[in-house]
Amino acid sequence: QIIDKYGRLNMVNLVGWHVIFANGISNRDFRLVEGVIKRIRGVTDSPLFTDTGGLAAFDEEERRLLCKVYSLFDILSVNEDEVLQISRAIKAGARDEFRAMHNILKSLKRPSTIWLHSLDYQASLSTEYGQKLLERAQVAAAAAGVYRVEKGVYPTLGRLTKRMKINNFSEKGLKITRHATKKYGGKIGAAELVVTPCCGARNFTSTVGAGDAAAAAYTYAIAGGEL
């Protein structure tokens, strides 16, 4: 219905697996999700994005099934804990978060891009998108998240663009960015690696919705949206 009304989609975001599967996930659940994804891909060729969520509350079989769900998507969003948990769940040890991202890209069939976000820094590892686009997406995500924290509302595109020009970076984020750049350069294997520091909030209203704002800005930018 949305495609009929507005035309081709630039990106499809499907999130909330830990709400849907709060009481566990079965093979039947996975087949249901797989069927939904196939139907979506049958009507649009746009990339599919999802937020993975942590695996700590699930048993080994449920973690395996959740990883199969994640493998149906093109872009995965993770935090520092989640990326290591997924790497362990697919039986791929990692020395750090960046190697864990690489392990996931190698092990899961469909994903082309992993986006790691934290309070201090962001990182993208991608076989699909170039460094300039990934960096712009991360700057947009950081600006959108911190705007939501500062103002308690979601930014318009105009306000988001202005907030992207304020560079009060996290000192910890700058340190991690410099270390990752020195260690890996701009690639891990064939995948492009971009690490950027996040902005510090100038005042505080609420963190509610900050992650949603950041994810929306990231996917908008990476899909070619103008900022």
TrEMBL record:
<keyword id="KW-0808">Transferase</keyword>
<keyword id="KW-0418">Kinase</keyword>
<dbReference type="GO" id="GO:0046872">
    <property type="term" value="F:metal ion binding"/>
</dbReference>
<dbReference type="InterPro" id="IPR007666">
    <property type="entry name" value="ADP_PFK/GK"/>
</dbReference>
<dbReference type="InterPro" id="IPR002173">
    <property type="entry name" value="Carboh/pur_kinase_PfkB_CS"/>
</dbReference>
<dbReference type="GO" id="GO:0016301">
    <property type="term" value="F:kinase activity"/>
</dbReference>
<dbReference type="GO" id="GO:0006096">
    <property type="term" value="P:glycolytic process"/>
</dbReference>
<keyword id="KW-0460">Magnesium</keyword>
<dbReference type="InterPro" id="IPR029056">
    <property type="entry name" value="Ribokinase-like"/>
</dbReference>
<keyword id="KW-0479">Metal-binding</keyword>
<keyword id="KW-0324">Glycolysis</keyword>
<dbReference type="GO" id="GO:0016773">
    <property type="term" value="F:phosphotransferase activity, alcohol group as acceptor"/>
</dbReference>
<protein>
    <recommendedName>
        <fullName>Carbohydrate kinase PfkB domain-containing protein</fullName>
    </recommendedName>
</protein>
